[in-house]
């Protein structure tokens, strides 16, 4: 019930200004974001990799309309990738990129700039010995993101895609992307979307998630099952055995700080588990989407804001 108001709040510049004065050290922020710097991100990666997990790293930021800001984001990814390679972490850690952080919304030639910037990051990832996955943002960006994915895959076929089960179009998109070598992360979808394009009831989103799982696990690609939902994890495991898939021909993914014990349990059972680590100073939008999913944390969040510790 609180999901939509929190997601609406996430768009308020006034609230953003107030909340963004909270230091990243505030405990509600650190429960989801391990730090602001490349060093913080690499340290968190190292800890998780030592524990038998894999990682995907997101340099936080989105919706930029400033070309210099987009360039700075590309530079941050390149610094990160070089560091992962130097520390021997690249075989276990890839990066997740939001196209709106690297120019997709620039007024004149956003699509083209985002494509070139993404190409630059893909090249750096390949040199480091790892891969890129393009995060998916709200439905107005889906066509542009999938078209950039198609372009990138001509040179970097290892580039991963994300599809959101809440969108009505997604089952068809899964069919189009379930081909050999195609890495596809399936998530429920974190954005507030209109009824015309998206299922509104949780039960309908869950049903769509299961239909999409069937397409992806029954297909030829490499499904990346991104959910904390115990039912979806269980259904995915049963479908994987039904389709004769062995662990390692698909993977589970969860967010940093969410159900860490389940992440370890799945890895100990022989599954590939990848943890999504967001880092950087621009944690506002990310934090608000997580609060929308777990409104029980709202009281805790408001208290942190009032005490500003
Ligand atoms: C690796 C990864 C990458 C993602 N990338 C994208 C992306 O590119 N674009 C996008 O739109 N969204 C993305 N998401 C977010 C996703 O769309 C969902 O918003 C988010 O994962 C919550 O959905 P859920 O499947 O976990 O289940 P929900 O429907 O939110 O929750 C179902 C159940 O899961 C368990 N659960 C959920 N959250 C918690 C928690 N905090 N603590 C304990 N139990 C919990 C509870 O049992 C809950 O009842 C990503 C998610 C992951 C894991």
TrEMBL record:
InterPro entries given in the database record: FAD-linked_oxidoreductase-like, PRODH_bac_arc, Proline_DH_dom, Proline_oxidase
The Proline dehydrogenase domain, residue ranges: 45-300
Domain of life, per lineage: Bacteria
Keywords: FAD, Flavoprotein, Nucleotide-binding, Oxidoreductase, Proline metabolism
EC number(s) on file: 1.5.5.2
SUPFAM superfamilies, sorted: FAD-linked oxidoreductase
Cofactor requirement: FAD
Catalytically driven reaction(s): L-proline + a quinone = (S)-1-pyrroline-5-carboxylate + a quinol + H(+)
Top EC group: oxidoreductase
Pathway(s) served: Amino-acid degradation; L-proline degradation into L-glutamate; L-glutamate from L-proline: step 1/2
PANTHER family: PROLINE DEHYDROGENASE 1, MITOCHONDRIAL, PROLINE OXIDASE
Record protein name field: proline dehydrogenase
């Amino acid at each position: 019930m609180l999901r939509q108001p929190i997601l609406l709040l996430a768009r308020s510049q006034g609230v953003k200004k107030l909340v963004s004065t909270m230091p990243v050290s505030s405990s509600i922020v650190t429960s989801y974001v391990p730090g602001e710097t490349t060093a913080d991100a690499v340290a968190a990666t190292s800890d998780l990799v030592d524990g038998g997990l894999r990682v995907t790293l997101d340099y936080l930021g989105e919706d930029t309309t400033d070309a210099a800001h987009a360039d700075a984001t590309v530079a941050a990814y390149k610094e990160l990738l070089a560091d992962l390679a130097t520390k021997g972490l690249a075989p276990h850690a890839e990066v997740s990129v939001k196209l709106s952080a690297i120019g997709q919304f620039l007024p004149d030639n956003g699509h083209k700039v985002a494509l070139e910037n993404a190409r630059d990051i893909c090249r750096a990832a390949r040199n480091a010995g790892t891969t890129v996955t393009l995060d998916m943002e709200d439905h107005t960006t889906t066509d542009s993101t999938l078209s950039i994915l198609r372009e990138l895959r001509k040179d970097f076929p290892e580039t991963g895609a994300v599809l959101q089960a809440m969108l009505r179009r997604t089952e068809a998109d899964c069919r189009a992307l379930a081909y050999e070598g195609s890495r596809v992360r399936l998530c429920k979808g974190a954005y507030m979307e209109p009824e015309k394009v998206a299922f509104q009831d949780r039960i309908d989103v869950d049903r769509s998630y299961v239909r999409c799982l069937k397409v992806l696990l029954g297909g030829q690609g490499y499904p990346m099952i991104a959910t904390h939902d115990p039912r979806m994890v269980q259904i995915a495991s049963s479908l994987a055995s039904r389709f004769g898939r062995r662990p390692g021909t698909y993977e589970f993914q969860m967010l940093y700080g969410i159900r860490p014990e389940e992440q370890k349990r799945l890895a100990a059972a022989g599954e590939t588990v990848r943890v999504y680590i967001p880092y950087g100073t621009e944690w506002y939008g990310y934090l608000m989407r997580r609060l929308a999913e777990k409104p029980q944390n709202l009281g805790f969040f408001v208290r942190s804001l009032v005490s500003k510790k």
